[in-house]
Amino acid sequence: MEKRYQIQLSNYAKEDINCIYNYIKQDSIYYAIKTKNEIKNRILELMYMPYLGKRLESFDILQFRELIYKSYRIIYSVNLNKVYIRRILHSARFLSLNLIKN
User: Does the model's pTM come out above 0.90?
Assistant: First the structure.
């Protein structure tokens, strides 16, 4: 049987998803719902493949990884049997350690 990891979203990640949804909803409720669902589905892939994303090598701390969905970066870390989603950020946004460490 394949190992299954627990997915946990930080409060920041939950807020990020809501902000993405609300921003897209201004133009299209259909695409807002679609994007929100596809981001969640992308995150669920980590349940069985937690190392699917690449390491965030821009920082010296190698525990952070990123999974890409279109123009969004899903920043997460893996610890034992848990995948902790820290942030979901647009790729055009400047990525700092303070943004993901909280």
Answer: no
